User: Which sequence fits this backbone?
């Protein structure tokens, strides 16, 4: 045992350890013992468990390779190429420009991940997961965008010791967009694509028929607001975001005649638009640290009319069945971004109540792995 490990062990209050801790310590001593591992792989009763744990560990080891397989699959536009039906290997070589040996390596890898299917006569078609990418263009946009995150994760130990000057924080250059030194186009496009992906899930979870005036804070170019007013014609919406983003949204050609107005401002420095009876933060709060988030919630309570409703929609930590997405994916992502953290529904509920909101409840999302929804009411003026 190293000197460091010995020091840590001597500092552990073993006498006060719970039964769960004691059980885990006993289990870990067994699992860490090579002799036990050899026995477990040979014993018919324990072999399935040993194989399962070995497979799980190998998936963690191979995770980056899986993600890069997905990136190549998307960059070569294979989902779009195969959308109308299977294509032979020779045809895919011509369409992608990748020599056959390399392309076959990718095709077989993508098939193993459920992205592709292989048929007789050397035909390749979309698998279930590959087809799902066509319905969710936001996934492809995020996968391409992850090249910034991977630069930071090339040395994760170093990244965890600092949060400034990361590749991801340079991409999400909120301060530069606010100062006008960075064009918001790329920033806004990814926001719109990824936000649009979950907007319908949020609107499936809430009923906005009794409201008239929606304010969507940090709503980018209006992906969520447009879907909201299309779903609930009783609504008029105002989207509040940085002046450069609002200018960009107002300059875009309007494909639909929807009651959506874009207002420019700084949600941290300026008052939020008032005279609203429903106010939304869609995938906003987890990007920011606790103190500014609490101030935003306080400002939201002040801006809402009495009887108004606050809606928070974002991925949340410790979501049953998807723990790794909360603390692992979003935890590392937001650390690299330079601000924010994944919060549990319970943590957000306490922050909403601290701001004065009452009757805080979770609305049932049809896709909690991607977005959960909390709703609170402003009872007092």
Assistant:
């Amino acid at each position: 045992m190293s000197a460091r490990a010995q020091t840590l062990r001597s500092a552990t209050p073993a006498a006060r350890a719970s039964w769960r801790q004691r059980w885990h310590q006993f289990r870990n001593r067994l699992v860490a013992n090579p002799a036990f591992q050899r026995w477990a792989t040979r014993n018919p009763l324990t072999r399935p468990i040993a194989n399962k744990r070995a497979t799980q560990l190998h998936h963690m080891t191979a995770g980056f390779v899986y993600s890069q397989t997905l990136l190549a699959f998307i960059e070569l536009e294979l989902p779009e190429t195969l959308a109308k039906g299977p294509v032979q290997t020779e045809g895919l070589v011509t369409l992608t420009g990748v020599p056959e040996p390399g392309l076959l390596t990718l095709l077989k890898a993508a098939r193993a991940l459920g992205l592709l299917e292989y048929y007789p006569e050397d035909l390749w078609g979309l698998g279930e997961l590959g087809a799902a990418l066509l319905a969710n263009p936001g996934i492809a946009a995020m996968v391409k965008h992850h090249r910034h995150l991977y630069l930071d994760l090339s040395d994760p130990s170093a990244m965890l010791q600092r949060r400034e000057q990361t590749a991801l924080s340079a991409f999400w250059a909120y301060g530069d967009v606010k100062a006008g030194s960075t064009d918001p186009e790329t920033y806004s496009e990814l926001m719109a694509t990824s936000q649009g992906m979950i907007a319908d899930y949020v609107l499936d979870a809430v009923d906005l028929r009794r409201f008239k005036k929606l304010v969507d804070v940090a709503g980018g170019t209006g992906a969520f607001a447009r879907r909201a007013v299309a779903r609930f014609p009783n609504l008029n919406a105002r989207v509040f975001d940085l002046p450069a983003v609002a200018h960009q949204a107002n300059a875009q050609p309007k494909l639909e005649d929807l009651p959506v107005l874009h207002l420019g401002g700084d949600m941290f420095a300026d008052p939020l638009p008032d005279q609203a009876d429903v106010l939304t933060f869609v995938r906003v709060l987890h990007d920011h640290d606790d103190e500014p988030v609490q101030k935003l919630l306080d400002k939201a309570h002040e801006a809402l009319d009495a009887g108004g409703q606050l809606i928070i929609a974002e991925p949340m930590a410790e979501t049953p069945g998807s723990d790794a997405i909360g603390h692992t994916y979003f935890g590392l992502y937001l650390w690299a971004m330079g601000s924010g953290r994944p919060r549990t529904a319970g943590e957000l509920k306490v922050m909403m109540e601290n701001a004065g909101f009452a009757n805080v409840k979770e609305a049932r999302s049809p896709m909690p792995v991607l977005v959960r929804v909390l709703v609170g009411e402003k009872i007092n003026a």
